[in-house]
Amino acid sequence: MKSRRKLLLACCALVVPIAVNAQPAGRVRQIGVLGNAPQSGVASDLIPAFIAALRELGWNKDKEVIFEYRWADQHYERFPALARELVALNVDLIVVTSGVTATQAAKQATTSIPILAISLADPVKFGLVDSLARPGGNVTGLSQPLSNWGKFLELAHEAVVGATRIAILANPTNVEYAHYVAQNEAAAKQLGLKLLILPVASAGELGPAFETIKRAPVDALVMGAEGLFYNNLPEILERARTGRIPVIGPISLAAEMGALVSWAFDIRDVYRRAAGYADRILKGAKPSDLPIEQPTKFDMVINLRSARKLGLTVPQSLLLRADAVID
């Protein structure tokens, strides 16, 4: 009997570590994803990166967690209705991939379902959280520093020697629009630059925007950190190439695809880190107790091939600061 009891205890000891690391037993968890458009084209690996990171944390897609997607298809006015659809499904977590506008819609739709926002600009200013350290409500996630928006004008001014007139693409349907414009105007004043603000609310408005640029020649174009522009990056870069306009982009892939300079944090890494938040929330952590992270490392990529095609010479001082140079 004693030998049998020892054998039973030994078997239990072997099983315990497995049980500790397994996900909570029970129903399949639902994650609602609220975004601007399906992650395709330039951002095709972002949601897969999030799902892969969740898998590494022990969540098996379709067996332990399933996803419900709601896309606004570049029409920001649809976010409130789409957020309400996810709430009606009683999802366990809403992951927002389209910044402040979509996060506000989600927060207005529910005060109880946890909301995980990815790459969220200044959540304190826009009333989404009490503070970065203690969000205090049902919203948490990873933010992008708003104060750095003027950095793109600095890069345009330095990369294009003698540049004085800069065009900026900005989406007026984004709730960040007014503050984004104000930040750039303040930076332009400090640098002695003239701005041409181009409000673009849909892909169909890109053509007229570039016609405006053609009529009022500019020295460079800054592309705002905006999902609408990410989803239409190939068209933007092609129009800029045709018009021989240097582009400064907020995503590394922009430089890889032909922009003169990009300055950005690693958005793929942000999506992977967001999976850690989702894991903790699905295991019972409260968003109010999860501090909002900010990226600390930004990479500058310079495309010398594009510079040569544009007849530009990038200053050596800028090249020495680049994290990567495409040649």
Automatic annotation (TrEMBL):
Signal peptide start and end residues: 1-22
Name of one Pfam family that matches: ABC_sub_bind
Assigned keywords, A-Z: Signal
Presence of the UniProt keyword NAD in the record: no
Keyword Isomerase annotated: no
Domain of life, source organism: Bacteria
Coiled coil: none
PANTHER family: ABC TRANSPORTER, SUBSTRATE-BINDING LIPOPROTEIN (PTHR35271:SF1), ABC TRANSPORTER, SUBSTRATE-BINDING LIPOPROTEIN-RELATED (PTHR35271)
Protein name: ABC transporter substrate-binding protein
Classification of source organism: Bacteria, Pseudomonadati, Pseudomonadota, Betaproteobacteria, Burkholderiales
